[in-house]
Amino acid sequence: MKIAVNKSGPFTHAPSSVSRTMALVLAALLPATLYDIWLFGWPAALMFLVTVLSCVGLEALCLLLSRRSVANTLTDGSAVLTGWLLAMSMPPWTPWWVCVIAAIFAICIAKHAFGGLGQNVFNPAMVGRIAVLVSFPLPMTSFVAPSPLFASGSPGFLDAFRIIFGGSHGFDSLSAASALGHVKTELSRGIPVSHSLADIPDFTSLVLGSHAGSFGETSALLILLGGAFLLAKRVISWHTPVAVITTLLVFGTVANLIDPARYTPGWFHVMSGATMLGAFFIATDYVTSPVSKAGQLVFGFGVGLLTWVIRTYAGYPEGMAFAVLLMNALTPIIDHSVRPRAFGRTRKGEPLPLNEESK
Amino acid sequence: MKLFPIKGGIHPEYRKELTSEKPIVALPIPSVLTLPVQQHMGAAASTVVQVGERVLKGQMLARGQGFVSAPVHAPTSGTIVAIEDRMAPHPSGLPMRTIVLESDGKDEWAELPAPIADPFTATPQQIRARVAESGIVGLGGATFPSAVKLGLGDKNKLEILLLNGAECEPYLTCDDRLMREYAAEVVDGALIMARALGAPQVIIAVEENKPQAFEAIHNAIRTKLNVSLVAVPVQYPMGAERHLTQAVTGRETPARKLTADVGVVVHNVATARAVHHAVRHGKPLLSRIVTVSGLGVVTPNNIEVPLGTPVEALLAFCGGLTGEIKRLISGGPMMGQPIPDTRVPVVKGTSGVLALTAAEANERPTQPCIRCGTCVSICPCGLVPVEMAALIRNERLEEAAAIGLRDCVSCGSCSYICPSYVPLVHYFNYAKGRLNALDAERRKTEQTKALVAARNARLERVAQAKREAAAAAARARAESQTTDVNKAEA
Asked: Mind telling me how many Å the CA of B203 is from chain A's nearest CA?
């Protein structure tokens, strides 16, 4: 009897797969997503759906255009994840056309123009977000105050359609600034950080998430829970998130100690904006971050440092997305220069010297 | 004993329970045995028998050629019916010189070399000579001639003989059963090997998932002062020579060196038992223990198999196959080789014959790499498989070699774990083979160039000599003419 010999070993395989990894990440995002749908009401739910469905639809279109198998590739879940993360990073009531344009940048330009899954240099969700942020700053910084589902004054299902698809701001929403945005604006008016900090949501609110901000970023606690789930499932390792958060905390705290009027404290950097989402879900993106653990530490440090620099000195209140994209560009260099030490070799790649004592 | 961590590694599904409680049974000698003249690393042996000749059990059929080689013996008595090229038990299925022995059913022993009465007063050279003439090779699967490895003590000052009972490959239980059932023979063989090596200390390493084997060895070493036993963690590839050395002694073998350079030599437990038989009883290596397993085989078992037994006879003894199988493997599922045809024989390196169903093999189409980096974190050699594979895909082999391709031991951990089912080891094996071929080609070209240069130099020398001779002749003629003229003038 003859049996195929067309392959080298191993002849057994772990029960792992790309779609399993993607599904675990989606599961980790679910608590924060459900909470924020509740917090920001029907319009947020609609915005979320529009963004995710645009990404999936565009992925299918790109696959068709490049004559690849649509069914096989769509089921890997990567387009859903990109859309999901993109939606998480948008203001909750973003109009539909902004979402669709962001999806075009994310899927068609950042991902498929580079060759599809695994080939993109930049994080697709962050490319989508940044493209619409710099193009349409108004809708991208129109944050709303929480208006939970079914609460009085919360827009109903039909109102939600008008808000997302109507193009009018007919609904009497309560606009609000994000915490980072508020501090930055006040500072530009000459009001020291130490004063403006008094107006931002308190620590408990930052932890639980009941404050204005991007759709998926408000609850530090739920994002952290999702991150812990990914760590427990070994989808991600601690290196990137710990490096991002520690760097932000250290730079924030030290600068704040030096000049509390100018610099926001470290804990505020960690608890607000996209820090948690960025550290656990964005900076840990496999495709666009280094493959080695040491490389991930360097990458995480870079993301943390750049985020702090942009938040502190640049025009934008939030810098996570920019920081991630800048570090994405450095990933090939990090991978090239930070490699694990090979067995029996020095860090430089030379064979270990023979230790005469050990003989 | 204090252990040292090794980097990376995986925890595959072991499925050892299929055969771990099956005692070793002897396979009845098949009517026809096919014995390839090369069942080891190094040069093929050359046949010393003729077609039609009657041979006895234990008689040498082919003699080792050169330093790294091993002889082949008759596993039973009978007649040599053919010496011809037959399909080798190798994935290539290429033909190899094979001695075909028809058993006469008498199993009549030849006159064996006398036992070495007291190996511990014998010289290391005597022991090595006996091991060499007994055809013993590394039975863990590497099949390197053991006598050569036992000579490492000549050049290096060795401290430890590390006996490898880790058996980290899934499914395989042949070493487990061997340690349980023949612990005394294993320990005695190890002590003889230590004597041949000049190593004062023996350490036997067993993975923690084999408590009965551990217990059996523990009982067997009670009265031996210089033998210790250590349970190493269950972590593939713990049984890799360099990694086991590091785990047990903390010594990291430098790249391109041998474990002997750090004072340690590693031998497999089954090899130790074979040495015991060769030295104490004069018996050459005629059989080995094979684990026949996998969900594709009806009754998985551990079997003592005469070398040269066709795989199909072995499978038939185990009740045949259950149905459709995906892969038939010689060795373990991680580092084993596919068997091209069930007619090929069991040879010295066949530690297992695995009939794997599609569910066990779990093969899926390759998807794009998502750079998850798992292959990097689990690589026990500290390499970056994802990057090497990307370079090899683009035929940039030298660059892959520059980042450590040659340090890869093909353990298969990266391929096993890859969520995109990228056949990383397949790429590496391809690149290693291609680089070796390119190296050989380059050496050949250089040799040719050197020969051409030498020839040109020689021709030039000849031409020069001729020119000089001609010049000398011309001078001589000129001088004689001058003389003639002078004479004439005079």
From this structure: 16
Question: What mean pLDDT value characterizes chain A?
Answer: 89
CA dist A288 and A307 (Å) reads 17
> Residue A358: pLDDT band by 50, 70, 90 thresholds?
very low
Residue of B nearest to A348 (CA): B403
Contacts of A200 (CB under 8 A, 6+ apart): A179, A182, A183, A268, A272
The model's pLDDT over A293-346, given as tens digits with 9 standing for 90+, comes to: 999 999 999 999 999 999 999 888 889 999 999 999 999 999 999 999 999 999
Tell me how close the Cα of A217 comes to any Cα of chain B, in angstroms: 24
> Does A68 lie at the interface with B, CB-CB under 8 angstroms?
no
Interface with A, mutate which of B14, B249, B370, B422 (most A CBs under 10 A): B370
Q: How far apart are CA B266 and CA B259, in angstroms?
A: 8
> Among candidates A282, A176, A216, A283, which has minimal Cα distance to A45?
A216
A340 close contact with B: CB closer than 8 A:
yes
Beta bridge partners of B86: B96
Q: Are strands B95-103 and B160-165 parallel, antiparallel or unpaired?
A: unpaired
Q: What is the pLDDT of residue A357?
A: 47
pLDDT tens for A93-126 read: 899 999 999 999 999 999 999 999 999 999 999 9
Q: CB contacts < 8 Å between A and B, how many?
A: 190
* Minimum distance, in Å, between the CA of residue B96 and any CA atom of chain A: 18
DSSP single-letter state for residue B41: S
Residues of A in contact with B263 (CB under 8 A): 358-359
- For chain B, domain boundaries: 16-28+119-288, 382-433
The whole-angstrom distance between A113's CA and the closest CA on chain B is 15
Quote the CA–CA distance of B64 and A149 in Å, as a whole number: 84
Is the CB of A343 less than 8 angstroms away from the CB of B360? no
Nearest CB to B376 within list A291, A343, A344: A291
**ipTM of this predicted complex?**
0.88
- With CB atoms and an 8 Å threshold, state whether B335 touches A342: no
Question: CB distance from A10 to chain B under 8 Å?
Answer: yes
In chain B, residues with a C-beta closer than 8 Å to the C-beta of A119 are 368
Cα separation, B314 vs B345, in Å, equals 9
CA distance A132 to chain B (A): 26
CA gap B438, B444 in Å, rounded: 10
> What is the model's pLDDT at position B486?
65
pLDDT tens digit sequence for B280-294:
999 999 999 999 999
Task: Name the percent of chain B lying above pLDDT 70.
Answer: 98
The reply to whether residue B157 touches residue A359, judged by beta carbons under 8 angstroms, is yes
Cα-flanking dihedrals φ and ψ of residue B429, to 5°? -65, -40
Interchain contact, A291 vs B312, CB within 8 Å = no
- Over range B79-98, report the average pLDDT: 92
pLDDT at A63: 93
Q: B445: which residues sit within 8 A by CB, 6+ positions away?
A: none
| Residues β-bridged to residue B207 | B232
Q: Average pLDDT for residues B121-145, to the nearest whole number?
A: 94
Model confidence at B483: pLDDT above 80 = no
* B410-456 pLDDT, tens digit each: 999 999 999 999 999 999 999 999 999 999 999 999 999 999 999 99
Token readout for A155 is 């827009």
Print the SS3 string covering B429-452.
HHHHHHHHHHHHHHHHHHHHHHHH
- Whether residue B242 and residue A287 make contact (CB cut-off 8 A), yes or no, is no
CATH of B16-28+119-288 given 3.30.565.10, 3.40.50.11540, 3.90.1200.10, 2.40.170.20: 3.40.50.11540
**What is the number of alpha carbons within 13 Å of residue B352 lying toward its C-beta?**
35
Min CA distance, A90 vs chain B (Å)?
A: 25
